Amino acid sequence: MTTQPAEPSPRRGRGRPGHDQAAVLRAAVELFNRKGYDATSMGDLAKELGLTKPAIYHHVTSKEQLLGQALDDALDELTAVVTEASRDGAGGTSAYGRLREVLRRSVEVLVAHQSSVTLLLRVRGNSEVELAALERRRWLDDRLAALVTEAIAEGALRDDVPATLVSRLLFGMVNSLVEWYRPDGAYDRAMVADAITAIAFDGLAKHEA
């Protein structure tokens, strides 16, 4: 199993009221998504928040630290979901049941952290921070593939599609939400989670000849 990268030590925000560390991070993620990480400067972020550039450094030490925090925000909760589901005999639930639960909760995590997940899906490994995030994504793919393999062994899923391909397709369905899902749109996250789970597992169900 791949060792999870250590999380950065949190810094206590000491800026002006209304511009705590969480607010700075939210603004940074919005800018990174809108302009691109490489094209965004700390000066751009200061302007977005109506602060001076030195004031930004009361909250963070660098643009890369903000990127790392944003990617952790995208990955930490999903990592916890997959880790729990990957434990042998977790809660006495079948691998099939745990796999369905992972898919449902993945939708919930993405909706709750949509901006950060959008940023995560755009990284290409151009820095140590991005490489660490990509390594964590590979770990998630591997663990989900292992869970698919267990569900196949139980006889719950068809065995004619490779487990690694299934895991990528499942996460791909969830990740596609960043392109169109809006919290104030026609579909709430429970409805979307139900639909994705039903469509995915109806297609993956093992059918007797």
What keywords describe this structure?
209 residues; mainly alpha; Tetracycline Repressor, domain 2; 65% helix; AcrR family transcriptional regulator
What is the CA-based Rg, rounded?
A: 19 Å
CATH topology of the largest domain: Tetracycline Repressor, domain 2
Proportion of residues in β-strands: under 5%
Number of helices: 10
Indicate the percent of residues in helices: 55-70%
**Strand and helix order:** HHHHHHHHHH
Would you count the extended β strands for me? Answer: 0
CATH architecture tag of the largest domain:
Orthogonal Bundle
What structural category characterises the helix and strand content? mainly alpha
For this structure, what is the CATH class of the largest domain?
Mainly Alpha
Characterize the biggest β-sheet. none
Task: Explain what the structure shows.
With 209 residues, this protein is an all-alpha fold. It has two domains: 36 residues, Arc Repressor Mutant, subunit A (Orthogonal Bundle); 141 residues, Tetracycline Repressor, domain 2. It contains ten helices and no strands. Helix 4 packs antiparallel against helix 5. The radius of gyration is 19 Å and the shape is elongated. It starts with 20 loop residues before the first helix and ends in a 5-residue tail after the last helix. About 6% of the residues have low confidence. InterPro entries: DNA-bd_HTH_TetR-type_CS, Homeodomain-like_sf, HTH-type_TetR-like_transc_reg, HTH_TetR, KstR2_TetR_C, Tet_transcr_reg_TetR-rel_C_sf. It holds the Pfam family TetR_N. Keywords: DNA-binding, Transcription, Transcription regulation. One of its GO terms (molecular function) is transcription cis-regulatory region binding.
